[in-house]
Amino acid sequence: MSVKQKALMSFIWVISVLIMWLSLSLSTAWAQDENVAKAQRVLSALGYDPGKADGVMGPRTRRAIAAYQHSNNLPPTSELDEPTLRALGLLAVPLEPEIPPAPTPPPAAWRTVLAYLQHYDSQPSRLVPYLTEHFRQGLQAQAWIRKTMNEIAAQNFSRLSWRIERVEPPEPEAASEATVEVYSRVRISGEEMARREVFSLVRADHTTWLINELTSLAVSESGPEALTPDETTAGR
Question: Residue 135 has what pLDDT?
């Protein structure tokens, strides 16, 4: 084999390796961009502000990820690591065979309850668009915010974890009312306890639901079915 042929074969081999490397790099980058875009859409739906869902991991997206991690007791990496992707629902989590699948909640109603769970004990002012006047017990928005903040401070209230257990009706496209039941772990005056909260919602328009009433029940540690009335309010 001549020197020229050897040089040509070496050149072809180098080009082939570069093409393979470039293809793998582009494929990986595309997958990462897709994950970032999906995470941006989910974060935006959860009330965080990652900016436009463009698949770019910019400072605004990192701040939104960090805020989400802080709210959900995740490692504060500001990255889309495995725990964060799993918490956002972007990694499949196998269910136990004996656990039935959770009902599909009404999207808008579910987001309304989620906003309450996330912001009640940190930024109650963000809840005003989600509450009826009946829930505020006739108080004007600023008066309700002050009252709520005073109650939170007096009780040293914080929510530790929560899960949605029931949504009725499960497909409420034509319904004017819905009920969302949530099981929570909360801390009040330094004491941790379990409670079940039942949110009554009314439809404001074809896309918007408002919280109209909240019933809060303490849950016995012996089992979630043993309920003792703790407080029933049209607000907190």
Answer: 95
